[in-house]
Amino acid sequence: MKHDIDLIIFDCDGVVIDSEIISANVLIDELFPYGINIDIDYVQQHFLGCNFQSVKQKIKSNLQVQLPDSFEARYHQVLLTAFETQLTTTEGFKAFLASLTIPFCIATSSSKKRTDKALDIVGLTDFFNKNNIFTADEVENGKPAPDLFLHAAKQMQVNKQHCLVIEDSFFGGSAAKNANMSVVHYVGGKHLPDGTNIVSSVFSDVPVLDNWRKFSELVPAVVTINNSFTLNKSNDN
């Protein structure tokens, strides 16, 4: 892992917020009335890290089902309702974020509206705002294309060689690789309960992180460790 890192680019879902397990369950339930019976493993393999339009296209090509135009709005409505009562940050993330000594941002396949709402629910709006949140709507090609990460680096005025991307999905990890950025595969979300190593099974040089406290072992120069950096779940979610 390089140590000359000047910017950390976080994926949002499954990295900043522990949302992927919620999103997967809602999607599975909402697809069932259309004759689509899939499980979480299928969602992880085919949809993790993709924006909704990519998911819709994959459903059409892989499952031969054309979802109606109304499906997306219904899905997001149900999902945001579930977020209100179930959504948290990934464990220890707020303390980790407060320990960082360099700039950071979010680059996500989710919409701006959904991302803003989710960050508000988990209490991260003091850390993330319009100046350091970037979504797939802002670029021509979503992950695994490098466009979004390159866009984020440009807006944050940091050379891509000095960016570190933290991703949970293969498509996101591939996007970071395609952008020629360093990447860490985060496997601490509830949707990866066994620490499933999706990214580094393909990219052998990608470090795996299952706990935010261990980040300082990978890039010690960008983290200030103090007594407040603890995994106190009651204070962190």
Describe the structure.
By secondary structure, the protein is α/β, with parallel strands linked by helices. It is 38% helix and 10% strand. It has 10 helices and 6 strands, in the order E-H-H-H-H-H-E-H-E-H-E-H-E-E-H-H. The protein has helices at residues 20-31, 40-46, 52-63, 71-86, 93-99, 112-121, 147-155, 170-178, 215-218, 233-236, and strands spanning 7-10, 104-108, 133-135, 163-167, 182-186, 208-209. It has a 6-stranded parallel β-sheet, with helices on one face. Helix 6 (112-121) links the parallel strand 2 (104-108) and strand 3 (133-135). Helix 1 (20-31) crosses helix 4 (71-86) and helix 4 (71-86) packs parallel to helix 6. It is globular. It starts with 6 loop residues before the first strand and ends with a helix. The model is unreliable at 225-235 (pLDDT under 50).
- Relative helix content: 25-40%
Largest sheet: 6 strands, parallel
Distance between the termini: 29 Å
Rg from alpha-carbon coordinates: 17 Å
Please provide the ordered H/E string of secondary-structure elements.
EHHHHHEHEHEHEEHH
Outline the low-pLDDT stretches.
Answer: 225-235
**Strand sequence of the main sheet, in spatial order?**
3-2-1-4-5-6
| Broad structural category | alpha/beta
Number of helices: 10
Q: Strand tally, please?
A: 6
Write the layout of secondary structure elements.
Layout: E1 7-10, H1 20-31, H2 40-46, H3 52-63, H4 71-86, H5 93-99, E2 104-108, H6 112-121, E3 133-135, H7 147-155, E4 163-167, H8 170-178, E5 182-186, E6 208-209, H9 215-218, H10 233-236
Parallel strand pairs: 1-2, 1-4, 2-3, 4-5, 5-6
